[in-house]
Design a protein that fits this description.
The chain is an alpha+beta fold. It folds into three domains: about 50 residues, Uridine Diphospho-n-acetylenolpyruvylglucosamine Reductase, domain 2; about 120 residues, Uridine Diphospho-n-acetylenolpyruvylglucosamine Reductase, domain 3 (2-Layer Sandwich), CATH 3.30.465.10; about 130 residues, 2-Layer Sandwich (Enolase-like, domain 1), CATH 3.30.390. The chain is about 35% helix and about 20% strand. It contains eleven helices and twelve strands. The strands form three sheets. A five-stranded antiparallel sheet has the order 4-5-8-6-7. The longest helix has 20 residues. It is globular, with a radius of gyration of 20 Å. The structure holds flavin-adenine dinucleotide (FAD). The site of flavin-adenine dinucleotide (FAD) has 30 residues, from strand 2, helix 2, helix 6, helix 7 and strand 8.
C-alpha cells in the first residue's frame, strides 16, 4: 500500500471531515520533516493511503502568549523557527526556544512543527522534555467534534507510542506562562556534532525559588533515558525546600542517574549514560543555581560528548 491521495485542508473542520472520510488510511501531515523521511525510507505505518496536509490551517499556527488563566497556547503547526525567535514565548517558557533552536538545521526548523515533534514521539525529540517540565496540556479533537485535554506526562503510554486516537487531531499545546514569575531554567542537548544532529541525551530543568531563596518547585526531564518520556520525580523532591548549593545539585544529579537505572534497568548503554546523565543534570542544575563551575569539570571531558543549545 502507498500514498494515493494528497489533501490540503484549509480549516480544522475540513481536516476532521477528511480524517473521517479516509479512516485508518489517513496520515496527518504538518511540516513533513519526519513523514517524508519515513515515506522515502518505506517506513510509513502500514495501510496509510492519504496525506492530509494541515499546515495551511491558520488556527493551527496560532501563538497566544497570554490566554485565559495566564495560559500560553501554541497551535501544533507553530514551527521550531518561530518558537526559537519569539521573545515573548522565550519569557513564558524560559527554555522552549532553546530546545527548538537546537532542532536540525534552519531549513528543518522552518518546516518542522512542535506538534509533529510531539506526535513522532522520538526518544531524542528536543521539545518533549521541555514540555514535560512545563507541565503542558494537549488539546485533541476527534472526527465527531469531541474535545479532550490530556497532560503530556500521560501522552506516551509505550516507547515511541502516543495516546492520540486514529480519528483525532492535535489542536493545541498549552502551559502556564512563567513570565514574570520566580522560575529559572536550563536546557542542554548532548550531540555528536554541532548541527543537524539528533540528541544523544537532552536535559530540561525548571526551578522556582521562594522568597527565602529556597527551591519551591523543581521540574526535571531527560530525553533518551527512560522507556517513555517522563519526569525525574525523586530528584525534583530532593531539591524541594533546600537552599541552592553545589552539594544539592550533586545530590539531585546522583538521584537523576539512579532513577534512570531504577526505571530503565541496567541496559547495555548504562555504562555511558549513567555518568553522562549525572554530569548533564549537575551542570544544568548548577546553571539554574548560578553556580556554574570551571571548564575542567565540563561534559566535554567525556570522549564522545559535546553539548549544544
Ligand atoms: C535532517 C533532520 C534533522 C532533524 N533534527 C531534529 C532534531 O535535532 N531534534 C528533533 O527533535 N527532531 C529533529 N528532526 C525531526 C523533525 O524535524 C521534528 O520531529 C519535527 O518537529 C517534526 O515536525 P513536522 O511538522 O515536520 O512533522 P510531520 O513529519 O509532518 O509529522 C510527524 C508526525 O506527527 C503527526 N502529526 C503532526 N501534526 C499533527 C497533528 N496536529 N495532529 C495529529 N497528528 C499530527 C503526523 O501524522 C506524523 O505522524 C529532524 C529531522 C530531519 C529530517
Amino acid at each position: 500500500m502507498s500514498i494515493e491521495r494528497f489533501h490540503i485542508a484549509h480549516s480544522i473542520d475540513e481536516a476532521l471531515d477528511l480524517l473521517a472520510k479516509e479512516g485508518s488510511g489517513a496520515q496527518i501531515l504538518a511540516g513533513g520533516t519526519d513523514l517524508l523521511v519515513a515515506l522515502r525510507a518505506g517506513a510509513l505505518d502500514a495501510g496509510k493511503t492519504a496525506f492530509i496536509d494541515i499546515s495551511r490551517i491558520p488556527e493551527l499556527s496560532r501563538l497566544t502568549l497570554n490566554g485565559p488563566d495566564g495560559q500560553c497556547q501554541l497551535g501544533p503547526c507553530v514551527t521550531h523557527h518561530r518558537i526559537a525567535e519569539d521573545a515573548g514565548l522565550g519569557r513564558a517558557s524560559i527554555i522552549l526556544g532553546q530546545a527548538s533552536h537546537s532542532v536540525g538545521s534552519p531549513q528543518i526548523r522552518r518546516r518542522g512543527t512542535i506538534g509533529g515533534n510531539i506526535l513522532t514521539a522520538a526518544q531524542c525529540a528536543d521539545t518533549i522534555p521541555v514540555l514535560l517540565a512545563l507541565d503542558a496540556q494537549l488539546l485533541l479533537r476527534d472526527t465527531k467534534g469531541t474535545d479532550r485535554t490530556m497532560a503530556i506526562k500521560d501522552f506516551f503510554p509505550a516507547p515511541k507510542k502516543t495516546a492520540i486516537k486514529a480519528d483525532e487531531l492535535l489542536l493545541g499545546i498549552s502551559f502556564a506562562s512563567l513570565a514574570g514569575k520566580p522560575w529559572k531554567g536550563s536546557y542542554y542537548k548532548l550531540i555528536r556534532r554541532a548541527a543537524v544532529a539528533k540528541s544523544r541525551l537532552n536535559f530540561a530543568v525548571l526551578i522556582k525559588t521562594d522568597l527565602q531563596g529556597k527551591v519551591d518547585e523543581a521540574r526535571i526531564s531527560i530525553g533518551s533515558t527512560l522507556p517513555t518520556p517522563g519526569r525525574f520525580t525523586p530528584a525534583e523532591e530532593l531539591l524541594k525546600g533546600n537552599k541552592p548549593s553545589i552539594e544539592l545539585a550533586q545530590a539531585a544529579a546522583d538521584a537523576c542517574s539512579a532513577y534512570m537505572i531504577q526505571v530503565a534497568g541496567r541496559r547495555w548503554s548504562a555504562e555511558y549514560k549513567e555518568p553522562v546523565v549525572r554530569n548533564l543534570a549537575r551542570r544544568g542544575i548548577l546553571k539554574v543555581f548560578g553556580l556554574e563551575q570551571a571548564p575542567e569539570e565540563s561534559l566535554e571531558q567525556h570522549p564522545e560528548a559535546q553539548h549544544g543549545a
